[in-house]
Design goal:
The structure holds two protein chains of two kinds. Chain A is an alpha/beta fold. Helices cover about 40% and strands about 20% of the residues of chain A. Chain A has twelve helices and 15 strands. In chain A, strands 3-2-4-5-7-6-12 form a seven-stranded mixed β-sheet, with helices on both faces. Chain A has a six-stranded mixed β-sheet with strand order 9-11-10-13-14-15, sandwiched between helices. In chain A, strand 6, helix 6 and strand 7 (about 165-170) form a beta-alpha-beta unit. The chains are: A alpha/beta, B alpha/beta.
Chain lengths: ~400, ~180
């Protein structure tokens, strides 16, 4: 039987990790993720989870400890944000390259300089090409649900890759919401202990992460690409399994109103929720708008995205991070690439950068974006391909 | 229906706590909720706000609250110093910790067509708790003014959060504020 409790995003992630029977947690606290780490260390101290909490001196060490632990076959969790994720950068590639199925909670936060502790996606977008799977939650419930699913996805022998579950800093990490949590036994049934393929063991020594020059390095990278391609189906399988346990349906992406939408917003995370709220109002007014929310950003769900776009004529793609100097920002670049790849380059696209450093995006802002997208669908003309929402210029 | 509440107080007065307790009580009644602080660094003694959303339907909106239906002023020294009625929707409600009548507060706030309610939360807190901790009193006053959650649900939340005598005293505070809050209608 499920029970309903009030949890912030940070609390929801910590609660889920507690139920996932992790063996090792190595993490360093950083705003706005701090509470995640505090709670987990408390759970370990109280004996609520039988795990080793490694108190590290930096995020670089946190990931290093996680890599070592994961290679022994342990179930491993870490968490970070912003500068912490940036400091992990080197080790992120090692985790994916050594095929460590680490799960990481990230309370997304802006990067310095200037110093800012509020929510945006600069941190995770900076880690976009590290070979990690990336999931973005819209609310605390999704954060809870994806953590539990993430261990199963990452640890699947067809995948064996690390995964991050992202929540918008403060907006989700510090907001309490209604969360339906599973009983511990149900989580155990859904997620049995990890079955590692190869482990490091002093009794049977093996070499891991050896020097790998032009003769084999490329093949190793090709295998990572293969594993990410395999992960699409593994994610779908785990989603189906999770639905049978909970009744809550997940997929690579979620759509709202897309069956007849002329214009749509594509957004990650909590903003997709606000976009849905505005889309509901606009649809009541007879305007055909929709929302596409990729739950999974890496691997990018291009095939599902193209299906979801359907006959929509205009897409407004919202990015909460700047890819300085790029023609479009991260999410929009991927959307445009997917459209081109599937022969749908006639779909009109514009890119809206919003919410940097935690600036709020309001329903009024989103309504204006929808109206501009509808106007472009009607006239066939995109007025501005790259917009900055709510900035003083 | 979605109801949005803004809490005004000072850092250290338990504004986040009451914004969450209201949400937790509504959660027990089967509602959907959000409770969040003013995002960012916390500074003891500085004016702060907290927010609660309550709805019968799932809440998908995640922007901040600009036009609350209800404003609760926990710290009376903010009146006149902070624009507590900012963005309040027409026919909204103001529930304030204030030692004079709603009519007197109305003169200080000029709140257009909002309904104004006051309660002397400090006196209740000093009488029952013996300490100037008056955030929970405002919860009792609020639930009398508008039934966002059942009083019994709130009492359950308080008893769980503060087991033993502290909880019992806070329940007494809530009940007395519930009785004593006055409106200017």
């Amino acid at each position: 039987m499920a029970k309903v409790i009030g949890l912030t995003g940070n609390e929801a992630i910590a609660y889920a990790v507690k139920q996932c029977d992790v063996d090792v947690i190595a993490a360093y606290p950083i705003t706005p993720q701090t509470i995640m780490v505090e709670l987990l260390s408390e759970y370990v101290y109280n004996g609520e989870i039988n795990a080793e909490f490694v108190c590290v001196e930096s995020e670089h060490s946190a990931t290093s400890a996680c890599v070592g632990a994961s290679l022994t076959g342990a179930r491993v969790f870490t968490a970070t944000a912003s500068q912490g994720l940036a400091l992990m950068h080197e080790m992120l590639y090692i985790a994916s390259g050594l095929r460590c199925p680490i799960v990481m909670g990230v309370a997304n936060r802006a990067l310095s300089a200037p110093l800012n502790i509020h929510g945006d996606h600069s941190d995770m977008m900076g880690s976009r090409d590290c070979g990690w799977m990336q999931v973005y939650a819209e609310n605390a419930q999704e954060a809870y649900d994806w953590i539990i699913q993430s261990f199963k996805i990452a640890e699947d022998p067809r995948v064996l890759l690390p995964i991050s579950v992202n929540i918008d800093g403060f907006i989700l990490s510090h907001s309490m919401e209604r969360v339906e949590v599973l009983e511990d036994e149900d989580v155990s049934r859904f997620l049995p202990p990890r079955k590692p393929v190869i482990t490091i063991d002093p009794a049977k020594p093996i070499t891991v992460g050896a020097l790998c020059l032009p003769d084999y390095y490329f093949e190793m990278k090709r295998q990572q690409v293969h594993a990410l391609n395999e992960s699409y189906n593994v994610i779908r399988e785990v989603n189906k399994d999770f639905e049978s346990f909970t009744g809550r349906r997940y997929d690579l992406l979620e759509t709202y109103g897309m069956s007849d939408a002329e214009a749509a917003i594509i957004s990650l995370g909590s903003t997709a929720g606000t976009a849905k709220a505005v889309a509901m109002d606009l649809r009541d007014e007879g305007k055909k708008v929709g929302v596409i929310k990729p739950w999974v950003y890496r691997p990018f769900p291009d095939e599902d995205l193209i299906k979801a776009v359907g006959d929509a004529e205009t897409l407004a793609v919202l990015d909460r991070a700047c890819s300085f100097g790029a023609p479009f920002n991260a999410l929009c670049s991927d959307v445009v690439a997917a459209l081109y790849r599937y022969g749908k380059s006639s779909v009109k696209v514009f890119n809206c950068v919003y919410g940097l450093g935690g600036r709020d995006i309001t329903p009024t802002d989103i309504r204006a974006i929808f109206n501009e997208a509808l106007e472009a669908a009607k006239t066939g003309i995109v007025k501005e391909q790259l917009k900055f929402i709510g900035v003083r210029e | 229906m979605l109801v949005e509440v803004r809490w005004h107080g000072r850092g250290g007065q338990g504004i986040v706590t009451v914004s969450r307790m209201l949400a937790q009580a509504a959660l027990l009644d089967g509602k959907y909720v959000q409770a969040f602080p003013e995002f960012g660094p916390e500074r003891r003694g500085a004016p702060v706000t907290g927010y609660t959303r309550i709805s019968d339907e799932p809440i998908v909106i995640h922007s901040q609250i600009y036009n609350p239906y209800i404003v609760v002023v926990v710290d009376p020294t903010l009146i006149g110093n902070v624009n507590v009625t900012r963005g309040l929707v027409p026919k909204g409600l103001i529930v304030a910790h204030f030692d004079k009548s709603p009519g007197d507060l109305r003169k200080r706030l000029d709140p257009y067509d909002a309904k104004v309610y006051t309660v002397n939360a400090m006196r209740i807190a000093l009488d029952i708790l013996g300490r100037p901790i008056y955030n929970t009193a405002m919860l009792g006053a609020l639930l009398r003014v508008t039934p966002l959650a059942k009083l019994d649900s709130l009492i359950k939340v308080i008893e769980e959060r503060f087991p033993g005598p502290v909880g019992e005293k806070n329940v007494a505070v809530i009940k007395r504020a519930y009785e004593e809050v006055q409106g200017d209608e």
